[in-house]
Amino acid sequence: MFKERILHSNHRRILIIFSLLTVMVTAAFSGGAWWKGNEEDVIATVNGSPIHVEEFQRAIRLNKSAIMNYFRDQHHADQSETFWTTSFDGEIPIEMLKKKALDDCVRLKARLLQAKDLGILQDISYPGFLRQLQQENHRRAQAIKNRQVVYGPERYDEDTYLEYLLTNSTLAVKQHLQQNALKQGESSLRLFYEEHKDQRYRTRGYVTVQRISSTILDSNHQIDPALEQKVKRLFEEAHARLLSGASFEDVAAAYAAPGTELELTIDLGDERRNARSPVAQAAAKLSVQEMSQIIEDNGSLHLLKCIERVEPDSAYLAYEQVKDQVLQDYVNGEYETRIREMTASAQVVRHDKLYQSFQM
């Protein structure tokens, strides 16, 4: 009887332990605790370079809202306990989220591999990234302790340090591509200009005007009503003389304030800046040889006459005008092409057990 009690007690203990383990495993694969492994676990490799589970989880977090918005907009799907695993016309949120997260991880790894291939980065593994983060934060803490200048945040978290690392490594790769482009001479750049000038290097349009201006501010930089009325009367006289055929130069000499700029060019493509300037808005409406009414802008009155107008997209910008921009566009294009090709041709090996077990 005593032996049976011991066996019964052990049996109950085993059942309790088994039940606890079952609960722990279930919890580990649901909610926010899908995975609690060590830093060496990987969910995939890209050309042999590991994508650690933490990197995948970060991509999941960054894409979660976009996927939710997609299903809300495309399928009118509301949040529920079964949202992530429900099929909406064949599309399952959790599967779309995992695919997008893994695709982003592969592209990120391609960017890091590009930098490593050029010797810009040495260790692109996640554990290496964490060591670098720790070292950088230690360096900053010591610098602050020693009252040295520290640029940027006092301490990086993983997201901000990754952005810092990517920004600097990408810049270094592009500098390498720029040096190669310059070594090859301008032929490649001129060819790039010719191939893309229809889309990128058309003029944004501009208007050149002659301008008569005079301030209406007092010594305290406030509008003086009496001075405003006086200048307005003078400008009405100037306007009448111009309409009667007097030369702009003669009228400007008589009515413009000394030292004011008599010619102004307005970039029609700079919509944000033009929206803040009554002079720019008035100039944009003028035809060649047309004059404006009297305009108040920035504490002065102005009278404009259009002498040149080029409509947006009506002509190409000359290569010499935009060659710095052409070089920048060429380098950016080369970089994106390399990353796209590396991503497309990458040997991606997925750890299906971890990938398939992921749940929200």
TrEMBL record:
Pfam family name, one: Rotamase_2
EC number(s) stated in the UniProt entry for this protein: 5.2.1.8
Keyword terms, alphabetized: Isomerase, Rotamase, Signal
Domain PpiC: 187-324
Reaction equation(s) it catalyzes: [protein]-peptidylproline (omega=180) = [protein]-peptidylproline (omega=0)
Class of this enzyme: isomerase
Origin species: Paenibacillus tyrfis
Taxonomy, superkingdom: Bacteria
InterPro entries: PPIase_dom_sf, PPIase_PpiC, PrsA_foldase, Trigger_fact/SurA_dom_sf
Xref: PANTHER family: FOLDASE PROTEIN PRSA (PTHR47245:SF1), PEPTIDYLPROLYL ISOMERASE (PTHR47245)
A GO term, aspect molecular function: peptidyl-prolyl cis-trans isomerase activity
Protein name, as recorded: peptidylprolyl isomerase
